Amino acid sequence: MSSFKSEPFLWIHLAGIVTFPVFLGIVWFGLSVSDRLPILWLEILLMVGVGVLPIFLMQWARPFEIFSLLVLAMKPDKITFQQRQILSLFKTPRQQILSAATALAMVGILYGLYQLPPLTAIASSVLTQSRFVGLLIASIAFAAANLFLQVPISVLGVLSTGEQQFAKIEPYPTEKIPQDFTLTGFRVDKIIPIKPVPPEK
């Protein structure tokens, strides 16, 4: 059987981390619009509530089901034996610890963004001085940044598993995938036209 580390979906979602700094740049831009609220921590708590908690809770309770791409997701009954073993790794306590650590790191990153000088001149030339608009842009971008950090970090946690350890992993039950994982998009039989390698008997 081929190594689980050659699974294309793992590397596709790991590569999503390249968008992380782009979304952070958008967050900085959004925060630069208009004057900041008098109570800094109130604004940070709002940003954390919108941009960190939902993604963290998803990864903690119902991890993102990585066998999907854009608006397409593989039907649970089309996911192979090896792929279901990979899904089992996403439900381990270690993955929850990684999710919690990533969420805390995102809070620290958000605080760091607040310490940067605002892009006032650029922001004011593009948008009207509306704090609501700025916060909306920053919150949405921060949620996207969190997603594109949380998922790759969880993928790294899976990739750090040894081959011998992986061989002992039980595949995740097909019938439990929809209730225990977050599936997005239209469900299809196949996304990547690669013939799966059957497990060894």
Automatic annotation (TrEMBL):
Keywords: Membrane, Transmembrane, Transmembrane helix. The chain crosses the membrane at residues 9-31, 37-57, 97-114, 134-159. It comes from Tumidithrix elongata BACA0141. It comes from the Bacteria. This is Low-complexity tail membrane protein. Coiled coil: none annotated. InterPro entries: LCTMP-like.
